[in-house]
Amino acid sequence: MNNTENEVRPWYKEPYVWMIIAIPASAVVYGMFFLTVSITSYDGMVVDDYYKKGKEINRVLKRDKAALGHGLRAQVEVDKNTLTIFLASNNTYTPPPTLEVGFFYATKAGLDKATFVEIQQPGIYQGELASLETGRWNVQIEADDWRLIGSLQAPDEAQVVIEPAVKK
């Protein structure tokens, strides 16, 4: 008599065993995939000392208020590798001979750029700038006691007007 009900099959021929094994095995495969993606697309930390930056906020606000007090307004033009800044101010302010300009990529700190522009004519500064990758850029123009902050979308916006961040 052939009794197939009581016949014991090896464990590796049972489909439910493989279904149970597949769950943790797929978790390991997905975990390795996401680990690989996270290592290869590391963005970097934008600010590594949040407490120190938080304490500096009062000093930064003073620089913004100083720009407002000087009546500063800048028009930034990016043309290929040339950066031109038209700086307008009130009559009592004497602009410095050079300005530091920073271009900070919105999401990747490794793409940030900094350059200096020199005065060419009263109110007109010019300097070299490496080409900007496509995306949103925060622009910071600064001197010793003031700064102006704005943003532009490269390459769609070739020029942007920047005014003081604080209002009266």
Detailed description of the structure:
With 168 residues, this protein is α+β, with helices and mostly antiparallel strands. The chain has a domain of 113 residues: Immunoglobulins (Immunoglobulin-like, Sandwich). Helix content is 27%, strand content 33%. The chain has three helices and eight strands. The chain has an eight-stranded antiparallel β-sheet with strand order 7-6-3-4-5-2-1-8. A hairpin with a 2-residue loop joins β1 and β2. 13% of the residues are buried.
Just name the CATH architecture of the domain at 50-162: Sandwich
- Quaternary organization: single chain
- Number of helices, where a helix is a run of at least 4 consecutive DSSP H or I residues: 3
- Strand fraction band? 25-35%
Q: What would the principal axes of the Cα set say about the shape?
A: elongated
Q: What radius of gyration results from the CA coordinates?
A: 29 Å
User: Span from first to last CA?
Assistant: 100 Å
Placed side by side, the strands forming the largest sheet appear as: 7-6-3-4-5-2-1-8
Helix proportion range: 25-40%
At the first level of CATH, the class of the domain at 50-162 is Mainly Beta
Order of helices and strands: HHHEEEEEEEE
Give the class from helix and strand content and strand pairing: alpha+beta
- The CATH H-level superfamily of the domain at 50-162 is Immunoglobulins
Q: Biggest β-sheet: count, sense, barrel?
A: 8 strands, antiparallel
Mean pLDDT: 86
Here the CATH topology of the domain at 50-162 equals: Immunoglobulin-like
Work out the number of β strands: 8
Show unreliable segments: none
